Task: inverse folding
């Protein structure tokens, strides 16, 4: 009887240790919305961020996009040679992930925004773009300019991350 009780207790302990463990994000990881609020200070730093995968590059697997809880902001994450990530598979779409990488910025100068805006207006005038799509594009350029004005910059910043490693969260 003692052996049976010992085996039962041992089995219960093994099951509790090897069962489905929930992986939680580290407490020090940024939620994406919070990271973007301080992104200017974190550029070129290694950071850890939590988000939901909305898209992976189907052809190369070298990029994915994540959104935060609000789903209003997104961040592009790229595979880099110095990282542990081999690729982002399509199965990741919809998953909550924690990604560690180096935060980068791409500066889009005012001149390029003006050129893109003029191209959209020309496409509308030529009948090559639907009016709704044109309005959405022009609204984006207007928001970019407002962002630049609010910060006293002559360029718009797009933040992205060179991904070093990631883990899928439960």
Result:
């Amino acid at each position: 009887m003692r052996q049976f009780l010992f085996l039962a207790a041992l089995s219960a302990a093994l099951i509790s240790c090897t069962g489905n463990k929930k992986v939680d994000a580290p407490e020090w990881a940024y939620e994406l919305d919070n990271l973007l609020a301080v992104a200017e200070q974190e550029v070129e730093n290694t950071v850890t961020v939590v988000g939901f995968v909305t898209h992976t590059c189907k052809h190369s697997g070298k990029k994915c996009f994540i959104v935060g809880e609000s789903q209003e902001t997104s961040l592009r994450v790229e595979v880099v040679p110095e990282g542990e990530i081999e690729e982002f598979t399509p199965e990741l779409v919809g998953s909550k992930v924690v990604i560690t990488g180096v935060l980068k910025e791409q500066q889009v100068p005012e001149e390029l925004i003006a050129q893109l805006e003029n191209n959209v207006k020309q496409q509308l005038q030529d009948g090559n773009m639907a009016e709704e799509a044109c309005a959405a594009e022009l609204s984006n350029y207007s928001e970019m300019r407002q962002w630049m004005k609010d910060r006293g910059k002559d360029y718009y910043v797009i933040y992205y991350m060179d991904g070093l490693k990631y883990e899928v969260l439960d």
